[in-house]
Write a structure and sequence with these properties.
Layout: E1 3-10, H1 13-42, H2 51-56, H3 58-64, H4 74-97, E2 114-117, E3 124-126, E4 136-139, E5 143-148, E6 156-165, E7 168-176, E8 189-194, E9 198-202, E10 207-209, H5 213-216, H6 218-229, H7 241-275, E11 278-282, H8 286-289, E12 296-297, E13 305-306, H9 310-323, H10 325-339, E14 342-346, E15 371-373, E16 380-382, H11 383-394
Parallel strand pairs: 8-11, 11-14
Antiparallel strand pairs: 1-5, 1-7, 2-6, 3-4, 4-5, 6-7, 8-9, 9-10, 12-13, 15-16
């Protein structure tokens, strides 16, 4: 199986400067390749440039500019060009599918934070000083950077990435051939229902509270954004010290919320895989769930629109984003695979409207947000637990509550 490891880097002052220069030069390469593609297509010949042509020019670029582009790993620069090529492939795929295209954009130095090394040993070396008790990773043009390795790395290191997050630097290892670590069998099965009031509810009726990290930090974030708005928009090198501190404060709060949400997802998923052998969950299409309602033109008033519930839907969408269902389900899938558990996604349609006792489907079964009462057989239960029970039933699980 595959697994990624993320470790904090502790570079020296000179190494930090070299890392920043590496990001700057890779960003310049990315933007230059994007400009070349734009100019070629705007030519009357409508020339289309691919990754192969741009990769073939790297040798000349490095020879022409040895002090900047020539300093860095050739394979990492190829990875940057592949990154641009993937962006264009995704753009054309969305155009064909009739979705919002999202043409690839130029990256500012502040918005280019990752450099990839496709192979360990080619431009980079993990654990470059094995004789030293301190772990280090070597990057071409930077040197041996100390790593705060808080856990052992298992499997074979395949790719290495260096990433900047605010003022901190991280190394990310993508490993394959990682051995699974199956947990002891518990002979327990469950279905889970994702929600807003409760983060999730199991078919046994246990509720996992929704921490609402974004909402809890909303006031502090709003205050920091108001303070940032007082400064005019300027390039990074022209900002004052107070302006830079205001920018960093907003970014730090966003990172805090993201890390809190990820930490909660990891702990909740780990508790589930330790307790249950088989877990069924809804196959949620979150993109469609958070889609804004279409405007309703007023037929009697040209240029006017009727109420479409956009304000209420915006609040619901914000709560769905804050819950982080997609992050949690992705983490749950990885932990289940590592622990040897079975994860079953099922169709989520009408799970909260179907009676688990008699199978009657009706929107009137759910009288309130919390209460479910079947209009045919009179079965009553918590609405979220009913959804979890129906998820388990659709997955083919037999539970004592509905047996």
């Amino acid at each position: 199986m595959h697994r990624a490891y993320k470790f904090l880097l502790r570079p020296t002052v000179r190494q930090r400067q070299a890392l920043e220069e590496m990001l700057r030069d890779h960003c310049s390469l990315y933007n230059g390749a994007l400009q070349e593609r734009r100019d070629a297509y705007r030519h009357p010949s409508k020339t289309s440039i691919k990754y192969v042509q741009q990769s073939a020019q790297l040798k000349e670029i490095r020879a022409f500019d040895p002090e900047t582009q020539g300093r860095w790993s050739f394979s990492s620069q190829q990875a940057t060009l592949r990154r641009l090529d993937k962006a264009f492939q995704a753009f054309f795929r969305r155009v064909k599918a009739g979705e919002k295209p999202g043409y690839p954009r130029f990256r500012g130095v502040n918005w280019f934070d990752t450099v990839d090394f496709p192979k360990d040993g080619d431009g980079c070396r993990w654990d470059s000083t094995p004789h030293d008790p301190l772990t280090r990773v070597r990057f071409q043009g930077v040197g041996h950077v100390r790593v705060h390795q808080h856990r052992p790395v298992k499997g074979r290191v395949k790719t290495v990435s260096v990433k900047r997050e605010g003022k901190q630097w991280y190394v990310i290892l993508a490993c394959d051939e990682v051995p699974a670590e199956p947990l002891p069998a518990t002979r327990a099965v469950t279905g889970i229902d994702m929600g807003i009031t409760h983060f999730l509810t199991t078919s046994e009726g246990e509720h996992q509270p929704n921490p609402r990290h974004g909402k809890r930090n909303a006031d502090a974030l709003a205050e920091a954004q108001r303070a940032l708005k007082e400064f005019p928009r300027r390039m990074r090198e022209h900002r004052s010290a107070k302006h830079r501190r205001a920018v960093e404060k907003v970014a730090t709060l966003h990172r805090t919320v993201r890390r809190q949400r990820t930490d909660h997802a990891h702990k909740t998923a780990l508790a589930l895989v330790r307790t249950y052998d088989v877990i069924a969950h809804e196959r949620l299409n979150i993109t469609n769930m958070i889609r804004a309602p279409k405007p309703k033109p007023d037929p009697d008033n040209m240029g006017a629109f009727l109420p479409n519930g956009a304000a209420a839907k915006a609040g619901l969408n914000k709560s769905i984003h804050d819950a982080g269902w997609g992050v949690f389900l992705s983490i749950l899938a990885h932990k289940a695979e590592s622990a040897g558990r079975v994860l079953i996604p099922v169709d989520p349609r009408n799970t909260s409207r179907t009676c688990p006792a008699c199978g009657h489907v009706s929107g009137e079964n759910r009288t309130t947000q919390e209460k479910f009462e079947c209009t045919r057989c009179g079965y009553t239960a918590n609405a979220d637990q009913v959804g979890a029970l129906n998820v388990a039933i659709r997955a083919g699980l037999v539970l004592p509550e509905v047996a």
